[in-house]
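Methods, example record. To illustrate the input and output format used throughout this study, we show the complete record for Raffinose/stachyose/melibiose transport system permease protein. The sequence lines were provided to the predictor; the line carrying C-alpha cells was produced by it.
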Amino acid sequence: MTVRAVEQQTALGSRRTHRRASRFRGASINLLYLPALVLFAVFTVYPLISGVALSFTDWDGYSPQRAWVAAENYVRLLTDDTFRSVLGNTFIYGIGSTAIQQVIGLGLALALDRRLRGRNVARAIIYLPVLVSPIVMGTFYYLLFQYDNGALNDLVVALGGQRQAWLSTAAGGITTIVLVNSVQFVGTSMIIYLAGLQAIAPEYTEAAMLDGANAWQRFWSVTLPLLQPAFATSVILNLIGGLKLFDVIQVLTGGGPGTSTSSVSTLIGTTYFANQAAGYSAAMGVALFAIIAVLTVIANAALNRRRLEQQ
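The corresponding predicted structure is encoded as:
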C-alpha cells in the first residue's frame, strides 16, 4: 500500500468517525427536549383530544354511562340564547381589555423609557400585579367595589353622594371587570413596549430630528412603525388572556346577576358542575378554543401584513 493510499484511508476513517459523532450529538440533543414533549402531550394534547371526544356525548360529569350524540351539542350551541349573550360578553372582555392595555401600556413605556429617577422602581410597581393571582386581585377589588362597606362607596358617601351598585348591574359589572383585568395586566404590555423601544436604534430618531420633525412626528412616523413587532405580540397575548377570562369574574360577580356578566369560561364551569352537562360544556370549550385560534390567526396575519406594508 502506497503512502497516498494510507492517507486516503485515514481521511475516510476520520470522516466516518466525525459523522458518527455528529449523529450521536444530534440524538443526545433530541433526548433533551423529549421530557418537554411528553409533558406537552400529557397536559395539553391529551386533554384537548379528550375534550373534543367528550363534546360528542351526553355525559353528565358523574355517571359511568355516556352515550354518543354526534353533533347535537354543537347544534344546541347555535340556538342557545344564553351562550350567544355570554359570547358577546367574552368579546367585550377580550377586545376591551386589549385596547385599554395597549393605550396605557404604551403610554407608560414611553414615560418610563426616559432617564427618570426611580423609573426602575416604577416599572416594578406597575408590573407587580401581573405576578399576583387573579383570585387575590379580584378579592381586593371586590372589597373596593362592594355595595355595603366598599371603600369606594364609603368615599362617595363621605363626599355627600349615594351608594352605587358597581357590581350588581350588567353594565356596571362588565365595565368593572374590564377595568380590573386591564389594570392587572397592563404591566405585561408596558414591558413588551419597553423592550421594543429599547431595540430601536437612536440613529432613526436623530435623523428625523435633523429633518426638522417635532416630537409627535417622530413618534408617529418613526417610533410607532418600528414598534409593530412589539404591538403584535402585546395584542395577541392580551387578546387571548381576555377571551378566556375566568378568575376575576368569579370573584367579582360570579357571572351575575343571572349570566349577564358571565364569560364563556365561567359558563363552562356552571354548565358542567351546576347543570351536570359535561358533554355540552365540553362543546362550549371546543367552540371557545376554535374562536380564540381563529381570532389569533386573523389578528396575527393582519398585523404582519401591516408591518410588511410599512417596510
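Annotations derived from this record:
The mean pLDDT is 88.
Residues 58 and 64 are 11 Å apart (CA to CA).
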